[in-house]
Amino acid sequence: MNRVSSAARRNSTTNLESAEKEYLKEQALMEAKRLKHLKLEEQRRIVLAGSREEKKQLQQIRKQEIDNHIEIRKRNEAFQDCSAKLSESSRAASTNTALESKNPISAQYNRIMTNQTARKEFEKSIMMENMKMQQLKQQMKRKEGEEERKQAARGLEYFHNRPRSFL
After folding, report:
1. Which residues, other chains included, contact 79 with Cβ-Cβ below 8 Å and sequence gap of 6+?
2. Are 125 and 82 spatial neighbours (Cβ–Cβ below 8 Å)?
3. Is 53 part of any domain?
4. Under a CB-based contact definition with an 8 Å cutoff, are residues 83 and 122 in contact?
5. Residues annotated as region Disordered (predicted)?
6. pTM across the whole model
């Protein structure tokens, strides 16, 4: 019986050890799965954060493109106005008026910017317009200042012309 009991003890200890080994293996597998899920979750977070940053960057890029488009449109409108003035003065001298009117605006812009004389005329016209605007602003300021001075003088005259009572 001792043999059986000692053999049983050996088997029971080995069963206990094997159960512990299996438990440790299961714990290691569960830990590995948990780490794997944590890594996947971290990767998802990184991807989401990256996509958010990319969305913000794309929004900023789109906004810049829209702003550039608006700025270009305003420049083109200003250029069309100035080029119309230039083309009216140069039509008498030019023989290709029919071809110029058929060209798109961008071609006219390129023609003016590549032609040095036309470019100088364009710049001069812009400078002249700026000077006229500044002169008009200065005249308006002068008129407003004169009106204020006149009103102040009228107020003083009113009080100077009134009799004073020393009561």
Report:
1. 105, 109, 112, 122
2. yes
3. no
4. yes
5. 1-20, 136-167
6. 0.28
Tell me if 43 is assigned to some domain.
Answer: no
Query: Do the domain assignments include residue 116?
Result: no
DSSP string, 141-164: HHHHHHHHHHHHHHHHHHHHSSPP
Note the Cα 27 to chain centre separation in Å.
54
Residue 125 · residue 85 · CB < 8 Å? yes
pLDDT band at 140 (very low <50, low <70, confident <90, very high): very high
Tens digit of pLDDT for each residue in 49-95? Answer: 777 788 888 888 888 888 888 888 888 888 888 777 776 666 655 55
> Token pair 């944590």 is at which residue?
38
Number of domains in the chain: 1
| Distance (Å) of CA 86 to CA 5, 57, 89, 91, 108 | 117, 42, 5, 8, 11
Spatial separation of the C-alpha atoms in residues 100 and 84, rounded to whole Å: 11
Distance CA 156, CA 152 (A): 6
Domain contains 44 = no
